[in-house]
Design a protein that fits this description.
Number of helices of chain A: 29
Helix content of chain B: over 70%
Radius of gyration of chain B: 22 Å
Number of strands of chain B: 0
Order of helices and strands of chain B: HHH
Number of strands of chain A: 32
Shape of chain A: globular
Shape of chain B: elongated
Oligomer: heterodimer
Number of domains of chain B: 2
Strand content of chain A: 15-25%
Structural class of chain A: alpha+beta
Largest interface: A-B, 35 and 30 residues
Distance between the termini of chain B: 79 Å
Largest sheet of chain A: 7 strands, mixed
Distance between the termini of chain A: 59 Å
Chain lengths: 809, 74
């Protein structure tokens, strides 16, 4: 039951199965634990009789639990209940949670089992695929905070999400499509089998009574297809008529139901040929096209879940000499708050004690940390790198920068401009024309003079032969192939329609930091002042010193030095000097590494004029090396931008960084139009102005400072290394950070768009040939069936060519 | 071939096919394909222990429901 793997002196933790040196483990009789958390959970599971968890876990490894001090009481607050908890008809409460830390089916089992054992918990369902859980409980017996505590006690964490938004809707819609397609596919397959017999009979002769039997069988089978599977078209047609637009749904609904009625008439009065197979085929094919579009739609719902995760829920309030964890909503202006290093500020405020570096890149896009002292302002959404500061809230949560940003974001997402889709426009004209033609045909034939019956049949045959199967498949099939091709190249289009939109774009707006540039300072130039003989030991000392810091400059120098293998020297008395650098001792020698200000503090006069960031390293007050660092454009940036420009797209750079830096980068990569020193709001305004001038804008960016702009643009493209919010807000995600992927996205979109146009041309050409034939009364069922299939196959086959075309460029 | 034989064959085959169709529709409706991970690892959750667990859970729910119904505020 307990698996303790022994490998030399390494021992596996009895709970999480991670291996550590025996000396650092907690020994508990015959068991070993890597931390108190694992030990606690192990004994808890033993006590609760849940130890079969370890059998199910097998040799899988877990992440050791992190200590959680967060108070779960706020889960019982009325405000929380109002937002997240629903009451079912039986009086039980229900909440939707996202469980963190689940990574295998044993984890799902453990969570469900542990909660089942609690008194008052009625139902627990955890979806392993997305880690979302639905918990139903009796609030009179057990409190939600106790349930949350249980989840935390067994080493997981849970936070709530609101399931009522689009996700549930999208899921419901998808399920309804599955059902409708299952019915349509089943009935169509059977009808087609019967139709083969009918077509054979058409040529070789068939008794009328056999014909009638087959017709009745087809009638039975096509009825659920028309009224159940085809229900979406009737609904669409109804809304179309209500808003006075002729859409594809009207054509499909009238075409299919008229054919259906006509075929019933034929069946009952036993004359001519019935067209039940056409009814089933039209509905099934067009439904399939619609379904492909629904499938490719990403539910926008997850966006809001991720957004709420980004806002710090709690802040540390200092009151009467005590530290209290309070909800951000409870903070009022004037409260004194404590921000520890590594924490994200949730409230805007003014520093009253302490100083240190802040990472503001998420808001301003500036790549270097900002040093803040007493009197400076802390902005919500920025992270403290090394500072422990006390600050006074100058705004409450609802008016803080981060909240404002998110509110603006929600607003702009709902107002996102969309380029109208070509196929939709086309199908509107198409449907109107076909319905008119059918009516004219009917009238002309009737007046010619033919019997009402013949005229009606010819009129209907126009609608049937104009079967919009090929037209309906033209766009979805091509875009699905395009999406697949994109996914293979690491480009995720969240919606198929974005491909078509991207192909029609004429302006590309790029963010600087992280999009055009690498997003972190890199060593440009190194100057060594020490002897070559001692170089190796100098580097070892410097590396050890750099290891103590997480400052981007230190990381840049370290990355440069680690291109070769080095061992590390052992240091004493390591000291971080905020915003300046590090100091330490090694074998009695004083190591100093940092910027010029630090050198000055230690009496070293390093006089260098440089527009770049400098890092100087000195041992015992003797300068050993000087590094010049720069946030470099990505190597491929210049060529990619040149090729995008060559394809007729205007490229613009918008950045929050300083004018000088922006000018240098713009010149280096060949961008003529740029604006610097922009706030997130100003970036949006810049894009809105472009849109007002009739430009169709695509924005590529990666930071939180870009999210508003990403949402405002017709298409937002997030770089893979970007923040979660940026990825969520955007329409296209590049999985790798390379700008080459950006170029590929354009290429794929254009190729796909070309194919869509070709497909539409094929289906229109098909109609141009067959409709006159139908109007002249020449269409027999066999030709109708064959031509419908051939046109659909042509469209599908043409779409498959995207792979070849894209390779050729 | 006799007409009634054809009717019978068509009828029986469509009926049997329809049964299978209803089976699939029922499975989709009750969410049996919703969680693909759980669906694939179903064998791990299909022991007697899990069945007992599910039964206990139902009994617990019924009991809580009864308690709620019996409850009368004084």
């Amino acid at each position: 039951m307990i698996k303790v793997g022994l490998r030399l002196s390494k021992v596996a933790c009895s709970h999480c199965h991670l291996e550590f040196d025996e000396s650092v483990m907690i020994k508990d009789e015959t068991l070993f634990f890597c931390c108190k958390g694992c030990q606690g959970i192990y004994h808890l599971l033993q006590d609760e009789g849940l130890d079969t968890f370890y059998d199910k876990l097998g040799s899988e490894r877990l992440v050791p639990p992190t200590e959680q001090f967060e108070n779960s009481e706020h889960f019982n607050a009325p405000a929380f209940f109002e937002r997240y908890v629903t009451q079912d008809s039986e009086g039980f409460s229900e909440v939707s949670l996202i469980i963190e830390g689940i990574h295998c089916s044993a984890c799902v089992w453990l969570n469900e089992k542990a909660l089942h054992k609690m008194d008052g918990v009625v139902e627990v369902f955890i979806n392993h695929t997305n880690n979302k859980a639905r918990v139903v409980w009796d609030n009179d017996v057990v409190a939600l905070s106790q349930i949350i505590d249980m989840i935390r006690a067994i080493g997981y964490n849970a936070f709530p999400y609101d399931p009522n938004i689009q996700e549930a809707q999208a899921e419901k819609e998808r399920k309804s499509y599955y059902l409708r397609i299952a019915v349509a596919a089943f009935a169509m397959m059977n009808i087609m089998t019967i139709a083969v017999a009918q077509y054979a009979g058409f040529f070789t002769g068939m008794d009328q009574n056999i014909k009638s039997i087959l017709n009745v069988a087809e009638w039975v089978l096509s009825t659920p297809v028309l009224f159940y599977s085809g229900w979406v078209f009737f609904r669409g047609a109804y809304y179309g008529m209500k808003t006075k637009t002729v859409n594809m749904d009207i054509l499909v609904a009238t075409g299919a139901s008229l054919t259906y009625i006509y075929s019933i008439y034929i069946t009952i009065f036993e004359r001519g040929e019935a067209y039940f197979d056409s009814v089933a085929m039209i509905i099934t094919f067009v439904l399939l096209g619609k379904f492909l579009e629904v499938l490719s739609k990403k539910s926008a719902a997850d966006t809001l879940d991720v957004l709420s995760k980004h806002i710090p829920n709690e802040v540390t309030l200092l009151k009467d000499g005590q530290q209290l964890n309070v909800n951000v909503n409870d903070v009022v202006v004037g409260d004194t708050l404590l921000l520890k290093s590594g924490e994200k500020a949730g409230i805007d405020g003014e520093i009253i004690k302490g100083e240190g570096s802040f990472d503001e890149s998420s808001l301003s896009g500036e790549s270097l940390p900002v040093y803040k002292v007493v009197g400076d302002f802390v902005v919500s959404g920025t992270t403290s790198i090394d500072a422990v500061v006390t600050y006074r809230a100058t705004k409450d949560f609802a008016h803080s920068t981060l909240t404002n940003l998110l509110t603006m974001l929600e607003r702009s997402l709902s107002k996102k401009p969309k380029i109208e889709q070509m196929a939709n426009r086309l199908s509107e004209y198409f449907s109107t024309v076909i319905l008119l033609l059918a009516f004219v045909t009917f009238v002309v034939w009737w007046l010619w003079p033919h019997s009402f019956e013949t005229a009606f049949m010819v009129g209907i045959s126009v609608i049937v032969i104009a079967c919009p199967c090929a037209l309906a498949l033209a766009t979805p099939v091509a875009t699905m192939v395009g999406l697949g091709q994109g996914a293979k190249s690491g480009i995720l289009f969240k919606e198929a329609a974005h491909l078509e939109t991207l192909a029609q774009i004429d302006t590309l707006v790029l963010d600087k930091t992280g999009t055009i540039t690498e997003g972190r300072p890199q060593v440009q130039e190194v100057k060594w002042f020490s002897e070559k003989a001692t170089r190796k030991s100098d580097i070892e000392k410097l590396l050890a010193l750099l290891n103590a810091s997480k400052h981007p400059v230190a990381l840049g120098v370290r990355e440069y030095l680690e291109r070769e293998e080095h061992t590390l020297a052992v240091l004493d008395e390591i000291q971080q000097i905020p915003a300046k650098g590090m100091v330490a001792r090694c074998d009695g020698a004083l190591l100093v590494g940092g910027n010029l200000a630090l050198m000055h503090d230690y009496g070293l006069d390093v006089n260098v004029e440089s527009g770049h960031t400098l890092f100087v390293f000195a041992i015992d007050k003797k300068v050993i090396a000087r590094f010049e660092l720069l946030d470099q454009p990505k190597p491929e940036a210049k060529s990619v931008i040149a090729s995008i420009k060559a394809s007729g797209i205007r490229v613009v750079m918008l950045t929050g960084d300083h004018e000088g830096v922006a000018a240098r980068v713009a010149q280096e990569v060949g961008i003529e139009h740029y604006s610097a020193h922009l706030t997130p709001k100003e970036k949006v305004d810049a894009i809105s102005t472009m849109q007002a001038n009739g430009e169709k804008v695509v924005m590529a960016g990666d930071g939180v400072n870009d999210i508003l702009a990403l949402a405002q643009a017709e298409i937002g493209i997030a770089m893979g290394g970007g923040s979660d919010i940026a990825i969520d807000v955007s329409d296209v995600v590049l999985l790798n950070d390379s700008l080459i992927a950006l170029e590929s996205a354009f290429k794929i979109a254009r190729t796909t768009f070309r194919l869509v146009k070709q497909n539409l041309a094929i289906s229109l050409l098909y109609n141009a040939v067959t409709i006159p034939l139908a109007m002249a009364g020449y269409i027999i069922p066999l030709i109708a069936a064959i031509s419908m299939s051939v046109s659909s196959l042509l469209v599908v086959g043409n779409s498959m060519r995207i792979k070849l075309m894209w390779k050729k460029g | 071939m006799n007409d009634s034989i054809i009717i019978l064959m068509l009828g029986v085959s469509i009926f049997l096919g329809a049964l299978a169709l209803f089976g699939i529709m029922w499975a989709i409706k009750t969410g049996q394909f919703d969680d693909k991970e759980k669906f694939l690892n179903q064998v791990q959750f299909d022991g007697t222990e899990e069945l007992n667990d599910a039964a206990e859970q139902q009994a617990k729910k019924a009991e809580l429901k009864k308690r709620k119904e019996d409850y009368r505020p004084e």
